[in-house]
Structure formats: structure tokens, C-alpha cells
Amino acid sequence: MTTPRTATTFAPPVMEARRWLDGVTFRADRPLINVSQAAPVDPPHPQMRAAMSAAVLEDDDIHLYGPVLGLPALRQTLAQRTTAIYGGAVAPDQVAITSGCNQAFAAAIASLCAEGDEVILPTPWYFNHKMWLDMAGVQAVPLACDDSMLPNVEACAALISDRTRAIALVTPNNPTGQEYPAPLMEAFFDLAQSRGIALIVDETYRDFHLQSGAPHALFTRADWDDTLIHLYSFSKAYRLTGHRVGALITSAARLAEVEKFLDTVAICPSQLGQHAALWGMRNLDQWLAGEREEILLRRAAIAEHFPPFAADGWTLLGLGGYFAYLRHPFALSSADLAPLLVREAGILCLPGTMFHPDGAAAGETELRIAFANLDATGIGEMFARLAKLDLPRR
Q1: Matching fold, domains 5-43+287-387 and 64-283
Q2: Is residue 212 pLDDT above 90, yes or no?
Q3: Which of 199, 229, 273, 235 is nearest to 42 (CA)?
Q4: CB of 323 closer than 8 Å to CB of 174
């Protein structure tokens, strides 16, 4: 009797971490600091919520099935926005709207891979990408990042086999926060193109990139859509996590294959969420710029608080998007440290072991801090609690 793939796939890490809260009581003067999940907890902009309410009441079509690949107006607007950000040319028929960015990744893999094929993932990896590959019967090939949390193109080239179908990059990265430099992205594109494989680029957190302007020039490359599969999420930009609206941009020919997958999974993305995303792109540019500025202020607060910790043996491995990625100095695995932090410091974060292959030594010393819901004062409190830890050192 065979074992179902879900049974051999690890449990969702964020849900597993929440179970560490069971039976723990937090003092009123030391409430829980939850930096485990990279999702905004505040509701959407009030005017967006009003527009959503009006749509529910006044637009009968919003309650019906919509086009499998998404609302034409949203596809067109995202194509225009992508062209404006990156240069090059993106057409509406190269855009699909999905039920969240995770579904966009799943759809991309369904259009690329058969049983036993391979996809290269830099480690530490985004755990949902690894989970989907496992459940799809696709081998995730780990590509270890260097001390700067950047993947190496030459090392990646050595991993490509006749079963490799794609390289998958996340930038700004989840979990490390590292923003991949434009020349590195170009080099990975060149590698993928020369080997006839896809380059999947997940830019869920692109709206919170440190630099202004285009983070890369991949859309300006000739025949970019033969190689590039670009993923995006409206959830972080417009606080629409519960409405599940993401996007996939690639060739129209590949989207014909993607449409088969989407039609059998969800039929169409949430109509309400799509209308909200469209309204946001048309009306909230100034507000989104303010959201980005706030995230950058929180990023700066982490950098400001870190020097004493560096002197005490901690290492800031990556910082960007919603994330700070740390190497701790303690003589215990991060898999044990993270639950202990809940009990001893009132901090819920994820251990590096959740972002590496089983048994990888690097994960034992790493922690991910998702700081999107922690303001500068909260960041200061988190570091103050970490400073009080009295644990054996390596």
C-alpha cells in the first residue's frame, strides 16, 4: 500500500508554531510578541472596504463565477503596472490572476513538471514551495546560499540535470529578507535560458523593496516570457490576505496550460478580492508608498538595535521585505530554542530548521523574525527580551 503524498509532507510550519502557545499564559506586562507569520493583521484601507461593500451590494456579477484567468480589467491593469515598474512590455494575455501567490506557484509547477522532475530551490527555502513540490511528486534540489544569503549561479549550474525544469527564486526573500541584486537576477535568467528551463521569480514582497525603481530588468529581455514565470501577491500590498489574490505572468501559451490547473482547483479567483485589488491599484498608490515607508522604518529599527547583539555573538544574516534572519549564539538547536522563546521570552518566531532540508546544520542556528506587525517600539521590546536570555553558548 502506498503512502499519500500529504502524509509524507511536513506539517504547515506556522500552524505547528502556533501549537507552542497551548498552555502558555502571558503576563499582562509581557504580552506575546508574534513574529511568526509574514502577513499584515490590519484590515484593508477604509475606502477600499467601502468599495468592497458597495460591490457586494450593487454588482450582481461579483457573486458568480468569473473568468478562470481573472478579471480582464485586473489583468490589463497589472500588465500596465508591471510594464511601468520593470520596463519592457507585458500584455494582458500574459497575466493570470490566481487565488493567492501560493496557487500561482502551484500552477506554474503543474505546467512545468511531471512525476520525478526537479526544481532547484535556494536554501533556506520558502517552506510552502517545498511542500508543494513534495505533494506534486517533484524533487526539490537544495541550493545552499552563501554567508550573504545569496545563491550562487555557478553552484546552481552544477545542480542542473536532465530532469531539471526550473529554478525558483524569491526576492525580497522569504525567509531571509535578502534582496537579490539585479546582476544576480540577470545571471540566473541567462543560466535558465541557456539550459532551456524556467526561471520562477516570486516577488510577493516587491512593494517593500529598499531601492526605488526596477529591482531587475528581466522583463526587458528579448523573449522574456519563454523563460520567466513571475509571481506576485496583492495580499501584502493591500492587506487582502483573507481574499486570496495573487498573479502569475508568463507567456500566453503557458497560461493556456495554467488555465487547466486553475479551472480544476478553484475555477476562478475570488471576485470580491479581485475587485479590491483593482480598486487598490487605481486609488492607493500614495497610501501604499506610506506602507512601504513604514516597513522600511521598521527595517531600520532592527538594524539600529542589532550592534550590541552582534557583539554578543548574534549574526544578522538577512534583512528586508518583512523579515530579519538571525543566527543565534546558543548551544541548542533552533528547533528547541523557538518553543523555549515562547515560554521564556513571550516571543513566537520560526526556527531555521523549518527552512532547510532535514538534518541541515545551518538551520540549527537560525531564526526568522517576521516584523511586519511590530512597530519600532515593539522591535525595541523584542530585542530587550532577547538580551535577557541566559542560555548556554556554543
Answers
A1: no
A2: no
A3: 235
A4: yes
Q: Is 0.85 surpassed by the pTM of this model?
A: yes
User: Which candidate, 75, 67, 49, 72, places its Cα nearest to that of 259?
Assistant: 67
Report pLDDT digits (tens) over 306-333. Answer: 999 999 999 999 999 999 999 999 999 9
Q: What separation, in Å, do the N-terminal and C-terminal C-alpha atoms of the chain show?
A: 45
Q: Which of 248, 272, 275, 274 is nearest to 261 (CA)?
A: 248
- Class of 5-43+287-387 per CATH? alpha beta
For 242-301, how does the pLDDT look when each residue is reduced to its tens digit (9 = 90+)?
999 999 999 999 999 999 999 999 999 999 999 999 999 999 999 999 999 999 999 999
How high is the mean pLDDT of the chain?
Answer: 96
- What ranges do the domains of the chain cover? 5-43+287-387, 64-283
The overall longest dimension of the chain from CA atoms, in Å, is: 63
Q: Prior bond to 124 cis, omega within 30?
A: yes
Q: What angle do CA 100, 106, 107 make, to 5 degrees?
A: 90
Q: What is the CATH number that goes with domain 64-283?
A: 3.40.640.10
Q: Which of 283, 178, 184 is nearest to 238 (CA)?
A: 283
* CA 369/CA 347 separation, integer angstroms: 10
Tens-place pLDDT, residues 43-73: 999 999 999 999 999 999 999 999 999 999 9
Please report the sign of the dihedral spanned by the C-alpha atoms of residue 165, residue 169, residue 170, residue 173: positive
Query: Letter for the amino acid at 135?
Result: M
Q: Residue 247: name the closest of 370, 111, 92, 137 by CA.
A: 92
Contacts of 319 (CB under 8 A, 6+ apart): 177, 178, 299, 302, 303, 325
186 pLDDT above the threshold of 90: yes
